Amino acid sequence: MGKSKKVGIVMLLISLFLTMIPFAGYAADAKFTVAASGVTASSDDGNVPANTVDGSLTTRWSASGDGQWIKYDLGSVKKVSFIKIAFISGDTRTSNFDIQTSTDNITFTTVQANVTSSLNTSLQTFDFPDVDPARYVRIVGHGNSVNLWNSYTEVEIYGDTSASASADAKFSIAGASVTASADDGNVPANTVDGNLTTRWSASGNGQWIKYDLGSNVRVAFIKVAFISGDTRTSTFDIQTSTDNVNFTTVQANVTSSLNTSLQTFDFPDVASARYVRIVGHGNSVNLWNSYTEVEIYGDVPVIPGVSVSTSAQLTTALSNASAGTTIVLANGTYSQTGPFVLSNKNGTASSPITIKAANSGQAIISGGASLQIQNSSNVVIEGLKFTNLGNTALLLDGSNNIRVTRNLFALQATGGTLIWLQVSGVNSHHNRIDHNDFGPKSDTDPLIAYQGDGNGNISQYDVIEYNYFHDVGPWVANGKETIRLGLSGISLSNGYNTIQYNLFENCDGEPEIVSVKSSNNTVRYNTFKTSKGGLTSRHGHNNSFYGNYFLGDGVESEQAGIRIYGNDHKIYNNYMENLTANAIILDNGSYDGGTGGYPSNPSADDLKEQWKIYRAQVVNNTIVNSTTGIIVGSTKTYAPQDSRVANNIVRNTTGTLYNEVGTTNTVFEGNIGYGSTVSNNGSRTAAQIWGTNPLFTTVNGVQKLSSTSPAINAAVGSYAYVTEDMDGEARSTTDIGADERSTSTSFGKHPLVVTEVGPNAP
Question: Do the Cβ atoms of 41 and 71 come closer than 8 Å?
Fold first, then answer.
């Protein structure tokens, strides 16, 4: 026998042997772990879908009817190679079904049709041509050889990493994530704005620009375009870091080509890096480093989810959502008559339902549309832009653990009344509204309104933080609050809500920028800048207001501070400057709710009144260059009772610094007043109001205690809750006023600026 024939026979035998070994070609395929929450079905008889991934052949999913399905979410796109299924009574009847896959949970492709099982109760393997990519696997049942029941005891899905998941892609980098050692007014963010006519520029050998990718990822290469790149070359190093402290040079002394377009600079892949830094060494003409655009490529984290690009697809995706589902809205406008609704859907803390824009601010809810989250939990709404007309943009109705983050609210004016974001309904709690942009707004009604549950209760434990509220107006007498936290009818309910780290700028809607109409809430560390109106505890008890900055311009009218009604409020560590209306006022009331604050059966009209103040504490505040200082009382019927004004500084050049409009039993101690009429109460002693110059010095634009200030270590009384000052620094022997004397010039808490809040903030 010739040699070639022997080789042919051997190869044939090897081939036949391999065909006898099931799936010998799938050695790399592994079983995917599918969470119980990732398994859903068209229906069940009480034997739930999660039973098919519990590792037990004694439990099952069951549903009767041709077309009933069970679906598995793999969490991200994968290569799917084959599945295994075990069937109830599989040794006495066969089952018939289709196998389908999808990347978006909307469009499914049948990879095997009319499959029939064998007579076996063990896991049976069903192979098909590999599918890459796929995230969802769906089994559509057509009953069994005895009846129309579809009953599976276990399902296992096998495959490998998707090739598409590892392809190099461009990272999306926000302008706020780009920093530099210096600039000449051409700022670092210009290098990620998609515009080759803008640039970052800094002169000098070693000037750098740095990009934060948000998490540690594989970085493969970068692209850079240069100013005047066709007439001069630029030299630079490329560095990476995981911690923003230790940087490794991955390419040194790189020189660009003569080209104004994006040029690619490749280097050995960096397996893990969060920060990419380009260190410039000038160019062939001078020491300027000027880059028009920079793009960074590598393993962009795959956002597993349902991609939608039309209103109909969004509606379907919301209807099909379950724990772990991410609905990604492509750039475009989503409009319809009536709201998009997510109803009775529950994510988990670790696997929320997410509704997000593929690119922040580029997915627009418009026209007659809006978004409503009803009776749902653990949902994230991220990066959308609301420009809709005539409807509340976002309604959180009877829902909890909802996060509303990095959205733009810019609704069209109607000339009528319109709440932009409403929180209401039973079982509302632990919601977070953060890093959003609200404004401009001219329609009456609040931007954010908490409306209660219809049973006298407000949503509880919510947080509103790091938002930018701006350009509200024109001014009306009532009804255009920026935030209204409650209503008179729910004012005696406890919210335990927190409003913090927000910037209110040019919010000129009405006398109450933030109107608190509920109890046990905290408003702290906010900045109110050149805004008409102020912060008011209009109804409710036990609210705390501290660490806020009220910064007027001294010109526009009605720029105010804090006004309160009700029992047991605390106002401390607030800084107020250049205000043109009342800085702090403990007003008289028109209704007496009693020292306990909870009279039996108050009427609806009683609840709407301005309630008499009991036991308010105004402590360690600083008021500078404002029209008024601290006012106690008014001409209304019920004067404040058992309140305290202690350790405050008022330094104005006009008006009465401590103005007691009526007779009260308010205790004054340890206050300083300087620059105008200290008090209209001639019986106040220096121990109560000290008429001495507090000797301020200007630090970062704020009036703070100088080293020779008489306020240092001069506070009196016991106010245990005053543990830090307006800067967030710990108090020792307490100073008078909002500031505890320090030699520092950088503070954790300070007047906020636009770059620290809103969608693009870190």
Answer: yes
